[in-house]
Amino acid sequence: MSEYVIVTDSAGDLNQEMADKAGVEVLPLSFRIRGEALEDYPDKRAMSPKEFYQLLREGETSTTNAVNMSQYVELLTPVLEGGKDVLILAFSSGLSATCQSAVMAAQELQEQFPERKIYVVDTLCASLGQGMLVWYAGMKKQEGMDIDALRDWCEENKMKLCHWFTVDDLMYLKRGGRVSAATAVVGTMLQIKPVLHVDNEGHLINMAKARGRKASLDALIQKVVDTAIDPADQVMFISNSDCREDAEYVADGIKERCGTKEIQISSIGPVIGSHTGPGCVALFFFGQPR
To answer: How far is CA 259 from CA 127, 133, 224, in A?
Structure first.
C-alpha cells in the first residue's frame, strides 16, 4: 500500500492535540481583526480563543478568508515529491471557497505528478463536524485503511454526520446574513435561541426556536436521543465559543440519556467564531437523517 497524507483546513476546529492524534496536516484559514490579518492554526499561535471572543464582546468585528490554491500547492508539492499520495478533506463548499481551491490545486498538481493519487473530498461539514470526519479518517488510516477505501468511507459517511448548534446572540448571525434584522431584534427581545444545522448541501439552516438558553441546549441533547446511530458506541464531538460550561452540560446530558462513553470538547476557532460570535454550542454525531 502506498503511503499517503491526510490534509484538512482549520475550519474543522481540530485543536493541536486532536490533529496530532489523528496524524493530519492542517492548513490555516485566515481572519482579520483590529486591522491585522492572522492565520488560524490548530495551536492558536496567533490568538487564543479567549482573547478572540473577548474582542468580539468589546465590539470588534472579524472577517475571514478561505485557504487559497497556492497554500495547497506549497504544502502538497514536497509530499508528492516524496512519493506519497494525498487525501484532502475540505471545508464545506456550501460555506467557503476553500474546497474549490483544493480542487484547483489537485488538478494542477496531478499534471506534475501523474503517478500519484490526489483526492479531494468536499466534506459538506463545518467546525468540529468536519473535524470529526477528519479525526475518524485519521483513526482508520492508522488502522491500515488504504487511501481509496478511506476516500470512499468519507464519501459514504459524511452524509450521516449530524451538525446541530445554537447561539446565544442572534446579532452575529444577522451580520452574516443567516437571519433577518427583524428576526434578530425580536428574537433577542424575547430570548429566542435558534437551533440550526448544516444540511445535505453543506449550508446553515435555521430549524427550530427555543425559549431561553437551557431549552436550546436541551434541544441539542434531544437530537441525539432522536437520531443518533448507536450513540453509546460512537465518539461524539462538541465545539463551543467561550462557553465551556454549556458544552459540558450538553455532554453530561448525552452521557446520561444515551450512555455515550466519549465526547470530545474543543473551542470554535476564529474562522467559524467570526460568524457565530461567543456563546455558540455545536454538537456533532453520526445519525439518520443528517
So the answer is: 24, 21, 11
For 51-78, the pLDDT digits (tens) are 999 999 999 999 999 999 999 999 999 9
12-28 residues labelled b (16+ CB within 10 A) or e (exposed):
bbbbeebbeebebebbb
- 20 to each of 26, 37, 42, 43, 275, how far by Cα in Å? 10, 26, 10, 11, 27
**Which residue is listed with cell 452575529?**
172
Residue of 124, 202, 221 whose CA lies nearest to 164: 221
106 and 122 Cβ atoms separated by less than 8 Å: no
pLDDT in tens, 109-121: 999 999 999 999 9
3-state helix, strand, coil in the chain (%, to 5): 45, 25, 30
Contact 126, 91 (CB under 8 A): yes
